[in-house]
Every structure is written in C-alpha cells, then in structure tokens.
Sequence to fold (707 residues):
Amino acid sequence: MSESTPGGPERRARELRRALRRHSYLYYVRNRPEVSDERFDELFRELKALEESHPELVTPDSPTQRVGGAPLDAFETIEHTAPMLSLDSSADVEPLQRFDERMRKALGEDIGYVVEPKLDGASIELVYESGRLSRAVTRGDGIRGEGVTENIRTIHSVPLRLRAADRDVPPLLALRAEVIMRVGDFEALNARLLDSDRTPFANPRNAAAGSLRQLDPRITAARPLDIYVYDILAIDGRPPSTQRATLEALREWGLPVNERCRPAADVGETLAFQAEVEEARDDLEYEIDGIVIKLDDIAARDEVGETSHHPRWAFALKFPPRKEITRLLHIFPSVGRTGVVTPIAFMRPVELGGVTVSRANLHNREEVARKDIREGDRVRVQRAGDVIPQVLERLEEPGRARAEPWVMPAECPSCGTVLEPRGPYTFCPNLFACPAQLAGRIQHLGSRHALDIEGLGEETANLLVRKGVIGHVPELFGLDVVTLMELEGFAEKSATNLVRAIAGARTTELARFIYGLGIPEVGVTVARELASHFLSFEAFRAADEETLQQVDGMGPRMAEQITAFLGRPEVSAVVDELRSRVEPVPPPRAGDTLAGLRIVLTGGLESMSRSEAGKKLEALGAKVTSSVSRQTSYVVAGENPGRKLGRAQTLGVEILEEAGLLELLSGGPGALPTPGELPASERAGVASEPALPASEPAGSASETDGP
Ligand code: IVH
Fold:
C-alpha cells in the first residue's frame, strides 16, 4: 500500500500512526503483540517515508517522533503540578499495624486498601494535556524537578497520546510513575559500558535515573527503560473514586500499570501479599524494594491528609536487605581521608539483587575479632539499598583448616607511620603527609559540597599524590597546565580546565570553605550553621569550645573535636596557607534583602543625594561600587548620568531609573528579582559558584564522616 490509497497520503499517514500506536501498545504495554516485528518495522518505514516526502504530515505525537531534536544545554527546572511526596516506610510489621490502626480510628472499620509492589526506580511526573504527553519532570526535591520530556518520549511504553477508546481523556492529567530498568537490560548495559571503558552503574535504579538525566535524548533512547504508572497527581475533571478505579482508568488510557497491584482488606492480606511478592522477588525482571499499601477510597485519603513529607494514607513495608554467601579471599587495611584505617574484605564476587559485590567494609579491628572473620572463611554478606555491603557472619565449615586470626598492621600501609588505636578504631596520626590521607583530603576539598572543583575526583587526587605533584594540600592552588600535562590522562584541554576550576575556587562561600577543611564532625549542615553564626572564617577559628556551643545544634563533644583539630599545629599551618589562597565569602545576614547585589549610581537623584542612596543600599546588604562591570547587578541612572550609563548599555547591565531604586529600597513590588532568586554566583558576589544545597539528604555520608 502506498500513497495511491484512496484519501491520499494524509489519510494513509493517519492510518499508519493509528496502527503503529496500537501495535506498540500491544507489544510494550500489554505484552501481547499481534504482528511480527518485521511487519511492525514495515509499517514504521512506510510512515517514515511518507512523512519524509510530506513533512507537513508529521505530528508531534507521531510514532516516528520519539527521539526528538538536538541535545539540550541543561534541563529546565519545572514545578510539579502537585507536590510529589515521599512515603512513610519501615521494614518492620509493627509500624504497618499502627498505620492500619490509625486509618481505622480515623475512618471506621469499613475501609479497604490496595497493595502494590514498591518499584525501585526513578520517580517521575507525566503530564498529559488534551491526551498528549506535554511534559515529564523528575521528582527532584518533590516540589520541582528537571524537565526530561524528550527523554521520557523515547520510552516506548509511554504513550505519546492517551487512548480514548474506552474512556474519555481529561483536558489535564498529571500522573506519578516509576521509570525502571529491567535487571537483564541493566546487566547488558553495564557490560557495554565496561567494554567501552566507562563506569558501570551500581544498580538498576541508578541506571534508570542516570539514563533519564542525559542531555542528549539519543543516548536515553539507546537505554532500555520502562515505566509503570501508579497514581494520579492531578486531574481536570472527575477523578476516579478509588485506587482500584484509578489503576483501571490508567490501563484504559493505555498506560502501563503493574500487574501485581491488588485489593487487600487488612494487615493480614497485606502481609500475605508481601510474602508472595518477596518469594517472587528473585524471579521478577525488575527490582522492587518492598510493597506499598494505600487506602483505596480517594475521598478517605483527603480526610486523613498528609504531612509535608508523606501522605498519611499510604505506607511502605520495605523488604529486608538481600543476603548471599560467598568466600572471603583477603582482608586489606585501607586508609581513609580522616586517617581511620578500615579493614576491607575482598570476596569472591557474588550477585546481590542485581549488583555484583566483591568488597565489603569490616569497620574496625574489634568487629573483625568479634565476628572472628578470617581470610578464606565462608561468609554471609548483605546489601541494604545502596549502602556498601556488610559481612554479617562467617559460616562454620567443620573439618576445614582456617587461616590465622587477622591482625591490624602496626604501621600505616600508606606511609609507614606507627598506627594508634583509639577505642575499636585505628588511626594513622600522620594527618597531612600520609599519601592516602592527603589524597583523601584533596579530593574532599574539591568535592561538590566543598570548593566544588570540577575534574578533581578520587582518581585525579590519587594521581597527583602518587606522582608527587602535590605533597601538601595548599599546593593544589599552585598547579599549572604544563605540570598536569605531564601526567597520564591529561591533555591540554583537561589540564587547562582543571587549572581554571581551581582558580575559580579561590573565592567561595564560607560554609564551603569550612566544610572543605574536613574538620571532624563538621558536615555540610554544621558548616552552614557555623558560617551563618560566625560570618567570617577568622571569627570561627578564634572561637573556643564555649563559644562554639552557642551555635545551633552544637554539643560539647562536637565543639571539643573542632577546637582540638584546629588547634593542632600541623592543621593550623595548612589552614593558614589555604586561607591565604582562598577567600571565603560570608553568607548574607538576615535583613540583608539586597545582599549580593552590586549597584552603581550615576547622575543626580531627586529624592535623596547619591551618597544617601549609597548608604541606604549598603544598609540592606548591597555593594555600591563606582565602576560598571559585568558583575554589576544594576546601574541606577538619575539626571544627567555620566559615562557609566553608556558602559552599562554596552555590557548589557540592567539600568534602573529613580523609581526602580526606590522600589529596591522599599523591597517593594515590581519585577526586580529578590536576592533569593538571583543565581548563587550573584548572591555571593562570586563568579559561577553554585550554592550549597538547601539541605543535605538524610544519612548522607558527608554529614557523618569526619575529616
Ligand atoms: S505511592 C506519595 N506507589 O517509592 C505517595 N510509590 O520510597 C505516592 N514508589 O518516591 C507514592 N513504587 O517513587 C507509590 N507502587 C508505588 C511505588 C512508589 C515505587 C516510589 C515512589 C516514592 C518512593 C518512596
């Protein structure tokens, strides 16, 4: 068949699109294809050819348009139609029982639930307008996320257009879904990445999330992603009245819904479901990390409401971590950035829920002794979520000869210094000269929440220390392109970029500088508290234990650790040197509504003198300067402005008249950005310095491990 079909190419294109949509749906969503792959390809090629010869026939939701245009420069931040909350969860049954009791107390005995597998993927919002997929946004912080529409379009099971055959399509429909990667696909992808010398993903969830965050949709298109939809976030029109009806509606709109979701009357049926799913877990093609129980009745959900973190009408029962048995080959002491020497177990690689595990943390020498773990033992290992696997216990092997008990070496494996026991832990006291610690400290100083020096990762830090390029942390700031280019893996471009990134870090937010020093107990949050309390590095450094304890959340132990660390002569020397190379910028004070703005005044004002205006601006935290540069936020031009006005025009700096100035001073309306809306670079008066994240994710490593 071709263009000679009655009705012409337009009609044929419509037929082909309809047929391809249907076959895609049957294949990708229902898993029940009706035509062979060859036939599908034939139809696809015909449509493609037709669209090529008649470009006016291409529609945005045509099956040929899944992989769209050019790569993006960056993702757009988009606010969700409704907040994407988290889930209340536990691995124990008791909190689930209490959840059920709360529901019954609030709503009476006549309630029902729906239970669903908890998919371990990347959470996403899909928005359909008039049945067309209009945007897809990652969960982000729950309020806003990144627009990854082009990438989501490449997932074949995501309909670009909702089916309207069985159910009317609402004008607006915002959905919540989980993007997953099947375990087999994940392994194949990792094998491919390894083949081309790239870093594999740690687990299918990271692979799914990482694939969604590709700026080039063609890369995402080559990643085998899939999706399950499970919730309506917002709907224009009458919402289904129950979760069961919701899932049914989603199915009718042609969306993939997990086939295991089902009603449950009570905790008993929920636990039965959990047992069933857990039993099936290893045979499932995708990763799940628990089950979710949800009130079926949507009106009842509104009655119980939500907290800012999670809805009160749902609860996740998490699976206990996966365990596996393998053989421990070797125990190796590894020196961390803080000088702690940690015994690491090297094991025969073993699969733990989609991930191959070959190393585990044995924590400290007492732990090794307590568990009596020796080289050559058979051990049970466990992996909980993303946490580094643990060796739980050794298994008895009667009749098998065992190695001698493992002992911590007396000297540091990295620098040979005599190690010091502290409680169950062992430390290398050679804080700044031990190569392992030095590399760790350099890496930490350059890390994302510290000076954020791009290109200074673990590998580079190790290389710089191993090759003797850096023997002392502050020497980082003396690196030059020529020296770097002599190192393997550095070309002119990467060397130049690193040197530039280091130069860019010479001015930084105070909190980042404090965090970057790797002071024991001082994670991102504490560093931020310290910065906003002391406002200057010198004030912080001079603080004694008592003064430190006035800082929010600071206890005596923390205060003592901080002063003890900063008081050490070798620390002091490094800090002095770093301080002479880096300028930490204090955070804006409360009331500094104009903090971060650089303003130039030119010409005469009517309502006040220029110097008066300058003082008022400064009182609100603005910086008033005399010359116009690209860093200038506004030039205020009064009567007979000087040459500064012309310069502002040339540089494209925004120009305000007196009325604009008065608005600034009153913090009044108008379209002027408040400092909070300015890029962090402008707030801190620093070029291209990203702000510290608003809050550190709970349990993040940077908060708990010391220097
Ligand atoms: S319901 C706020 N149902 O689990 C209520 N969530 O750990 C909406 N998740 O971020 C969530 N499978 O992305 C729900 N069947 C399911 C789920 C599910 C996976 C994810 C979800 C959430 C995370 C919380």
Summary: The longest strand covers residues 322-335. The radius of gyration is 30 Å. The first helix runs from residue 8 to 29.
